[in-house]
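Aspartyl/asparaginyl beta-hydroxylase domain-containing protein: structure, please.
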Amino acid sequence: MSDCRLGFRYPDKRGDTVASGIEEGFGQRIAAATDVAAVVDACRWLEAEGRGRVDPQRLRQALPALLHAHLARITDHPAFRLWLDAYFGRRPAAFRSRLQQPGYLYYPALEPRAWFDIDVLPELAPLVPRIPAVRDELLAVLANAGDFSPYVSAEAARSRTWAGLADRPDWSALHLLRRGEWHRELMARLPLTDAFLAGAPLAQYPPHAPECFVSRLKPGVVLPPHHGLSNIKLTVHLPVDLPPTGCDITVAGETRIWRDGEFLVFDDSFLHSAANRSDRDRTVMIFDVWHPHLSEDERAALAHAIAVLDAVQSAIARLAGPATSS
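Here you go.
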């Protein structure tokens, strides 16, 4: 077994000895973990034992080596190893397209391609004939659905990009699936949509995905150019209610329009924007699917890695925050 020690060398004082023991214990638990559940258990142990006793900043400094060693055991797939080494700064990393700059995760082995036609999406193509029925069901239910909410949160008012849309209904959403949690009451009224999404190759990497929502853009609204979070997934738009003219979306400098009965699929890690220059709302259903060039092995490894990174980073953040009363 590789050396799982975190490498702390404290002065020989009782408090530092205790801290070192907790951190070494956490390292041993991560080294022994074979699945995400075991990592989550290790994080819970760290929080229980380490609050007020370990230095979160020193722990953060030691985490890259520990997490790289754990994640390197998941698979020997060369593309995953390339991402892993780049993520932890062990080899140079650069975007292959100046227009592609995901904000969370960049998988460098994937060819930089902005638009995807259905003929290169074998997992999605069988769902095309079901689009009209899903559209009709959504239209019927949305006529009485009153729980659309602003897509851009109030906190985004500090953002140069999103300040103009923060907490406004100009761009609103009705979430069917968010951070892995279904809107059960709504889905009970959408059996065709539910079955349709069950057959889609949804990108599964909790806690960030899968997600699915109905997006509504008010007349006269133009979304600012922005980048999505990752290139390991593609964004799929299913048209629900389209004005006859005046609506378009631009990705990596190429502008396209939605067409009833067809998917519109793109990699949202590329710079993109959308506009509704018509006099009525534009409504589409949006969901994320795995990038078709990722193997099953890569998908499983990435899902594991994202869950582990989120669990560990969240635990360290809670350790660094104020103690909560029990």
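Notes: Residues 76 and 221 are 47 Å apart (CA to CA).
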